[in-house]
Specification:
By secondary structure, the protein is mostly helical. It has three domains: 55 residues, no CATH class; 154 residues; 75 residues, Winged helix-like DNA-binding domain superfamily/Winged helix DNA-binding domain (Arc Repressor Mutant, subunit A, Orthogonal Bundle). The protein has 15 helices and no strands. Helix 6 runs antiparallel to helix 10. The longest helix has 37 residues. The termini are far apart.
Length: 338
């Protein structure tokens, strides 16, 4: 692991990891760097150098874990500032770019295929909206209040940690659908461009979650109780997410296709077992195999997969998966989210 210090030249930092460019923009560091160091630019932009280095290390090294000393020394204000700017970046830059590229990519698809893809993407955006709204309206005001010496009755950072859900699962399903299930007549150049956006967003969101779980939570816990002993634990490994593509050559059996269709139609495990005259345990085993082979975990994602692969007609799925998305949402022109 290369040691990053306040004396490291910013240009050298970006040369080592150009993905940090978007991090700098979110922290308000823009323009040419010249020969200026990390410390000089942090001072110019009123950023705590320790906190800046902490954020860069998380984005650069997946095994990096901040020490308690660094957590006590860092700036909660700068972490909050970064998280807030990241929320804006995801919703108003990253997702907009993804939507525009996706709209162009799926133009050759049938109306039904467009409909389910946009529904899936729209639901993901709604999921992100709700996730970030909770943090903007509850968590960030709570932390700012603590910094002013005020506590919010009935709320603590532990409550946030308990309710902090993953925002990557649906994105992983979307990536798998674009990678494996779009019709072959969709332009490969556009497909690769969209996948680059999706992979970049996936990586950025993972780092974002790590900053919340491994930096913000323990930092705030120290404000709540300065005597607390805080040693951040490693994030639980998301099994199957990174390695799901290793099984991309696996082909669904006819029985697995039948089970997948039943899942997409909204049936519960017991109902699926009754329909196909098999045990619930067998249904569960088939569903695990389907997830492993397709790389898709959510019911909504499997529904889109079934339609894109002509296993199911859009008229044969529950209303919540096929309704609500109609022109002008997915017609040509500017994509809308209303």
């Amino acid at each position: 692991m290369k040691v990053l210090t306040s004396n490291t030249k910013m240009a050298d930092l970006i040369e080592a990891n150009y993905h940090l460019l978007s991090v700098l923009v979110r922290l308000g560091i823009e323009g040419a760097f010249g020969e200026r160091t990390v410390g000089e630019l942090c001072e110019k932009h009123h950023l705590d150098t320790t906190t800046f280095i902490l954020i860069c290390n998380i984005y650069s090294y997946k095994d990096f874990r901040p020490s308690e000393e660094v957590l006590r020394k860092g700036s909660v204000e700068d972490i909050i500032r970064y998280l807030h700017q990241s929320h804006d970046y995801y919703l108003n830059s990253a997702l907009v770019a993804i939507a525009g590229n996706m709209e162009t990519l799926i133009q050759p698809c049938t109306q039904a295929q467009k409909q389910v893809i946009w529904k899936f993407f729209s639901d993901y955006k709604t999921e992100l909206d709700k996730h970030f709204a909770y943090e903007e309206e509850e968590v960030i005001p709570y932390v700012k209040g603590l910094l002013r010496g005020k506590r919010m009755p009935g709320f603590s950072i532990d409550k946030f940690e308990e309710n902090h859900s993953s925002i990557n699962e649906t994105l992983l399903d979307l990536k798998s659908l674009i990678l494996k299930s779009l019709p072959p007549f969709c332009d490969d150049t556009l497909r690769v461009r969209l996948l680059n956006y999706l992979f970049a967003l996936q990586k950025d969101l993972k780092c974002h979650t790590r900053i919340e779980d491994e930096v913000l939570v323990p930092m705030v816990r120290l404000i709540e109780d300065p005597s607390a002993k805080v040693i951040p634990e490693s994030l639980e490994t998301e099994k199957g997410n990174e390695d799901s593509d290793s099984n991309s050559a696996d082909i669904l059996s006819e029985r697995e296709k039948e089970i997948l269709v039943s899942v997409a139609q909204g049936l519960l495990n017991k109902e699926i077992a009754d329909r196909h005259n098999i045990s619930i345990n067998t249904v569960i085993t088939h569903r695990k195999n389907i997830t492993r082979k397709t790389g898709i975990k959510t019911v909504a994602g499997l529904t889109v997969y079934a339609i894109l692969n002509n296993l199911l007609d859009i008229n044969d799925i529950p209303q919540q998966y096929s309704a609500g998305i109609s022109p002008p949402f997915f017609c040509t022109g500017t994509l809308r989210f209303d």
